[in-house]
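agent: user wants the full assembly modeled, not chains individually. Plan: 1) parse entity lines 2) check alphabet per entity 3) run joint structure prediction 4) return tokens. Steps 1-2 passed, two entities, 696 residues total. Proceeding.
--- entities ---
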Amino acid sequence: MSLQTNKNVVLVVLDTHRFDRIGAYGYGRPTTPNLDALAGESLFFKRAVAPGQWTIPSHASIFSGEAPAVHGTVQADDALPKEFQTLASRLSEQGIRTTGFCNNPLVGVLQNGFTRGFDQFYNYCGVVPSTPQKEINDLWKPFRNLWSKYTQVLRKLSYPIQNAFAQPNEFFLAALRPLFVPIWTRAGNFKGMTARSIRESTSFVREIGEEHKGGNFVFLNLMETHLPYSPPDEYVRKFVPYFHETPEAQYFMGGFNRKAWQWLIPLVEPFSDVESHTLSDMYDAEVAYQDHLLGQMLEVLNTDYHRENTMVIFLADHGEMLGEHGYMGHGFGVHEELVRVPLFIRMPGLEKPRQIETRVSTTRVFYSVLDYFGFESLAMPYAEEVDVASQSLLGMENQRENLQACAIAEAYAPDNAVQIIKKHHPDMVDAYNPGVDQRAIYQGDEKMIAVSGISKVLYDLAGDPTEQKPYQNPERIHDLSKILENYLELAMTRSAGSSHGKISLKDDVVQQRLRDLGYLE
Amino acid sequence: MMMSALKTGGMPLVVDEIREADANNPKGYYEFERVKKMPKGDTAWVAAAPGKAVKIISALLEFLPAEYTYRVIFMERDLGEIMASQQRMMVRNGKDLGYEKDEDQIYQSFTEHLTQMNQWLSERKDFQTLYVSYNDILSDPLTQFRRVADFLDHKVDPAAMTKVVDPQLYREKSN
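--- prediction returned ---
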């Protein structure tokens, strides 16, 4: 293996970013001119699929190269098992400098192993953020060192408390009360500091370019498009022009921003037209604001050095339901708004931009980064060595489209959201099956949604892109179920670390029976 | 019943008492919730469990970490009785039996699973297994608990274990 340690990768996760609000994916509003420009110079994946429907499983897959069914990191109180070596740790041990700039507490604050392998990881979220320190003169250094030690102690003290809030317990439920929501969203920096994190990561990337310091992996997670929505007024006026003249819209948005439990569960009652439009347009305003801030980063990435040495990847970990199909947020389901995600990769040497129709999972970003740095094969836990190029997306520049390729998304509802439903809205249990795993399998334009042990339906995404017309076709359901069954069987074998295999209860109905009896989660 | 008997016989248990006794199991479940998280990698608790007994359904045995050795008391019962019992538990728990039409399929899957499980256990050098029949315990508890005591190097008292056997519990017999 000859590593290309003079190269760089900038990986940007647009947390909670819907593909269909990006101009390059066909959106009609001018929300994303900067992303559109980059997408136009990239390998542009039109039909990328997130491995999971929310932050934890999706990031665990991007960082480990494994499906959620394999790594099993699907809840806020799960940790990525140590045998799954992270992308950052694989790079770091080869001498590549790994730096994270993170706005999502589920990624950077929880002690779940996601920061393993980062030489430096800056958290812009949480009660005590950790951000890059500016150069100051010697006179102030002792004070800064003292302050730094003080904040380190505070951070150590705060992490276990913040971890406790990630558990599906009374702490968490209490924190969702409208009275407390402004406290943890603001004082707890729930959404981080988008502007500052982009500014500081941009400075970092600029410095790499100015000093020609190759051998960097830079990870940036942005949370601006996550609830609560409070974009600058300039963006509200542009994308929600009726907001200031519509008391219903203001009342709704103010209330919704405080009722955090409503972000997590399906709609208790349908939105009115004003509510629905307000929510959707405020989301657009956040998208546009974040895109504007990203302009400075993209300007630096467009300099000659970075065009020649730095691969840039933009993707979302998942999308967001804004009332479609009765869902809100990203706790439940595998509908398009949630698991179809933006993904584009601009790499040096790309002869011409290309739009890729083949369905791909964003889990493959893991292999693409390693491929770019020159990794050829990887030892993976409980499996044969993996040929990196075979899983990398970079080779698709010159490959024929494979429209029959399958992609799979898995949805494991967050335990705390399930608890809210069971405790406060038991009437929703039958309609939404909150504790039951859901999976989507795509092949061509066909998509099957399987609710474990309960139902399987098909959608024709070519004629029904918003999944309004479920249909049955026993033959196709049989075929897709078989693929899904094999996928899960392999995953179970690998996650068990057992080469014996085939002893797990692979049958969905049997698993559901054991779940109903309380013997399985 | 076996967990209750082991406890009475002097074996320390790994339990958390989160799942409380109910009409289905009036003497309690003797369960440890984190067992269910093993497929997700939560096996750290096993380090504190040597010398103790924990209840694990067979489908989760494969998730036990490889660095230990295990003695498995594999409780056997007529599968028809088990399924009848499960159905009654679900009805009592208010679970919708919307998939009862699949009972034959479930029976078949459980049968296949048990065959594979027996094969798997026989191949694993780190697992010693004692098969104990639930019905045999009800008909001759002392003999069965002596077998258990032998298997556990006499760390339990078989005579004391017999005190937990309540023939009333054999109420879920299928017709």
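agent: reporting back. Confidence is low (pLDDT under 50) at residues 496-504 of chain A. The first strand of chain A starts at residue 8 and ends at 14.
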